[in-house]
Each structure stands twice: as C-alpha cells, then as structure tokens.
Design goal:
107 residues; mainly alpha; 81% helix; 4 helices
C-alpha cells in the first residue's frame, strides 16, 4: 500500500521517497508508469466530459495526476497548458518528497 503513495510524482522522486518510507521501489515505479499513462490517455476525455475549457486548468490537472507524461500531453494542448503542467508537477513533487515521509513517520 505504501508503494501507491508516490504514484503521482516523477520516477526519480518516487525512488527516493519510496526508499525513505520503506516502500517497494519497483512496485512504486510501476504505479508511476501506469498513473502517467492513464492520466495522459484519459485526461482529454475527462476534460470534455466535465466541460473544462481553460488550458491552464487542463495543464495543471495533467501535471498533478500524470507528471512528465501528462506534461508531454499538455504540450499538445497549448504552451500555456504545458507551463501550468510543469508547475504542478514540480509543486506536487516537492510536496510529496518533503511531507510524505513525515506523515508516514507519524502513523
């Protein structure tokens, strides 16, 4: 279960954080790959379903849920979406790397 906690960050951050919290790093990387691909594949469908039209919102969502793969997908939407995707990817990476080991340590 701990291996799933790092699924929404990039692989290098996942490796370090998984080691810090005692999770299986190989399994964590598998979850990262699956999350990235599913987010990039179904993100645009969800945006259409929910009628999300703002490129910034689309990019931020893709960066949050599907990290580098989502950022690459955001480039296909627009440069604005890609910028917000990169911002979100960085923010969630820092947040997970700093706070997840603290939270797991408290449990």
């Amino acid at each position: 279960m701990l291996s799933m906690t790092t699924k929404s960050v990039t692989a290098p951050i996942t490796l370090i954080t998984a080691h810090d919290i005692g999770a299986n790093a190989s399994l964590a990387i598998g979850f990262v790959v699956i999350t990235g691909l599913l987010g990039a594949l179904f993100g645009t469908f969800v945006f259409k379903l929910l009628k999300i039209k703002h490129d910034a919102a689309k990019g931020f969502a893709l960066g949050l849920i599907s990290h580098a793969v989502g950022t690459a997908r955001a480039f296909e939407i627009s440069e604005n979406a890609a910028a917000f995707s990169a911002l979100a990817m960085g923010l969630v990476g820092v947040f997970i790397a700093v706070f997840l080991p603290i939270v797991i340590g408290l449990l």
